[in-house]
């Protein structure tokens, strides 16, 4: 687990050393207007007023649309550099940033292979319209990938965000039912990179499924949370064996 800016740390990593990039970057979304998206805090945008937790805020979520595409393109280009040929890249996004994120994925040099849906069972209805209870995972590869591998993953996953003591991050993704399934796209025994590691959900899933993990997190607080969480998983695995 590295603590620092993703782009700066990625530039220090050796080329062609990871087999998958699975990451949940700051969406820079969450508002109806440009002012809402660029001036509100992450807590203000993504946490409802009646939430029962006091999780730490995070920075890097106030870019406008054009700077978001440029910034994410640079990050994903560096991810491509450190990935081996045939590596997979999975990038989370929401409906507002889906077009921008697909642009960044392709500008970064990845071959766009499809879009996976994360269905969130618990979501508030929207009066007069449709409930926003899905987020998306863009799937790309570093050139051709192993299409002969005996692996068949679904295109839709349904899993709720963690709650109670298991909730450690504002935008935390569920490990069971989602992350542990997504990491399986990585080649067996490979290394998974997450340049926006947050509280370590990708890393926890990777370790549970037998992969090595490299994480980068800008927030010093969340880097400590992730490191502690991954240490707990590693210690538990050692006891099991």
Concise overview:
This protein has helices at residues 6-10, 34-39, 42-46, 65-81, 98-107, 175-182, 201-208, 220-240, and strands spanning 2-3, 18-23, 83-93, 111-119, 134-141, 156-158, 191-194, 212-217.
Layout of helices and strands, plus pairs?
Elements: E1 2-3, H1 6-10, E2 18-23, H2 34-39, H3 42-46, H4 65-81, E3 83-93, H5 98-107, E4 111-119, E5 134-141, E6 156-158, H6 175-182, E7 191-194, H7 201-208, E8 212-217, H8 220-240
Parallel strand pairs: 1-8, 2-3, 2-7, 4-6, 7-8
Antiparallel strand pairs: 3-5, 4-5
Helix pairs in contact: 4-5, 6-7, 7-8
Domain DNA methylase N-4/N-6: 18-227
GO molecular function, one term: DNA binding
Family: Belongs to the N(4)/N(6)-methyltransferase family.
Instruction: Please report the total strand number as a whole number.
Output: 8
Summed up, the domain count is 1
Major sheet, described briefly? 8 strands, mixed
Which range best describes the helical content: under 10%, 10-25%, 25-40%, 40-55%, 55-70% or over 70%? 25-40%
Structural class: alpha/beta
Radius of gyration: 17 Å
**N-to-C series of helices and strands:** EHEHHHEHEEEHEHEH
Q: Strand order, biggest sheet?
A: 1-8-7-2-3-5-4-6
CATH superfamily heading: Vaccinia Virus protein VP39
User: What is the second-level CATH architecture?
Assistant: 3-Layer(aba) Sandwich
